[in-house]
Design goal:
Number of domains: 1
Helix content: over 70%
Largest sheet: none
Shape: globular
Number of strands: 0
Structural class: mainly alpha
Radius of gyration: 13 Å
């Protein structure tokens, strides 16, 4: 799975309920909570701002972190 600007736009197009449910599902499947990285899951405006401000470099780092996470999880 690669996250790109198009994926971010799709996330930003979701209503608050959909976005919140998706983020909760992703976090649960990853075995993390928003508190693990200091995020407030109820602050959807902040989450939307962060997603909208993500640069190509941010996306590269995110994709690299995700690939590393997946590799370690398979071991």
């Amino acid at each position: 799975m690669q996250i790109d600007k198009r994926t971010l736009q799709a996330l930003l197009a979701m209503n608050d309920e959909q976005l919140s449910a998706l983020l909760a599902k992703i976090a649960k499947e990853a075995g993390i909570s928003a508190a693990d990285f200091g995020a407030n899951p109820n602050d959807l405006n902040g989450i939307r701002q962060a997603l909208g401000a993500a640069t190509e470099e941010d996306l590269k780092r995110l994709n690299a972190l995700y690939a590393d996470y997946r590799k370690k999880r398979r071991l």
